[in-house]
Specification:
The chain is an alpha/beta fold. It contains nine helices and 16 strands. It has a single domain, classed as Aldolase class I (TIM Barrel). It binds zinc ion.
């Protein structure tokens, strides 16, 4: 059991819109303000996506750079960039911002149905992404939308492309991916190699149950508008930080200490 629990806030994502959630941060300034509020509330990692001027997902490194610079001016939060990007982006687009040397980046460990579309991550793309992350000292979060993705990650581990300690992200309840249930989570954890940490990401209605599941199994938590826009049934969250505040309260009730960014840097051996 970890004594300290890491809280990640995924503040925007690629799918959520302002129409659905008016408090969704879009511009680099809004993203940095939201990240900073989450940091003040106890989140130590921000998971970043970027949007263009029309609010559509973009992997433009210039937008990520501006956002990262603004966040780093405000605080020492650990910055994790997406390489999932959005449905339909090319692998070249998706990996481009990793050259900005964030602390961490997501690495999708396989293909999956995603609503009525799909996310494509063949092994050669995973290898390429892992190599670029290694060249830039970026720690991957091994995102698994299915049990087979954990096995795929182990192929890269065997090939020496991913080094311990490993950080897994179980993305549960994507429409078409693995469901969140305590037994499913337990089964995924059983597949992990030694020296693994894991964060549980419950999508939509499953997010709160998945948070309790993460705590029960000694894992880390992710909240934020990428995963869920509601605070409770039919009540939209006022902000990303409102969701972080609740996560902190629940973790403290379980007598866990909240990991600070420096704790994460030591735990994951971050180098940027
Ligand atoms: Zn994401």
């Amino acid at each position: 059991m970890n004594k300290k629990i890491a809280i990640t806030c995924a503040i925007t994502g690629a799918e959520t819109t302002k129409q659905q959630q008016p408090a969704l941060p879009i511009t680099p300034e809004e993203l940095a303000d939201s990240a900073y509020e989450c940091y003040l509330s106890g989140a130590s990692i921000v998971h970043l996506h970027a949007r263009d001027k029309d609010g559509k997902p973009t992997q433009d490194p210039a937008v990520f750079k501006k956002t990262m610079d603004l966040i780093r001016k405000k605080c020492d939060m650990v910055i994790e960039l997406t390489t999932g990007g959005a449905v339909g982006m090319t692998p070249e687009e998706r990996i481009a911002p990793v050259k900005l040397k964030p602390d961490m980046a997501s690495l999708d460990c396989g293909s999956v149905n995603f609503g009525n579309e799909y996310i494509l991550n063949p092994l050669p793309v995973m290898r390429e992404f892992a190599s670029v992350m290694n060249e830039n000292n970026v720690k991957p979060t091994l995102e698994c939308f299915d049990a087979s993705h954990v096995f795929a990650s182990q192929i890269l581990i065997k090939e020496g492309l991913i080094k311990p300690p490993y950080h897994y992200g179980f993305v549960m309840n994507v429409f078409g991916g693995i469901r969140y249930t305590p037994k499913m989570l337990s089964a995924l954890i059983d597949l992990l190699p030694p020296e693994s940490f894991f964060t549980v990401m419950g999508i939509g209605k499953s997010y709160l149950q998945a948070m309790y599941g993460a705590i029960a199994f000694g894992g880390f938590i992710r909240v934020g508008f990428e995963d869920n826009i509601y605070y409770s049934k039919r009540r939209l969250a006022k902000s990303n930080s409102e969701l972080v505040e609740r996560a902190v309260r629940i973790a403290k009730e379980a007598e866990l200490d909240i990991a600070k960014p420096d704790d994460i840097r030591k735990m994951f051996n971050l180098r940027n």
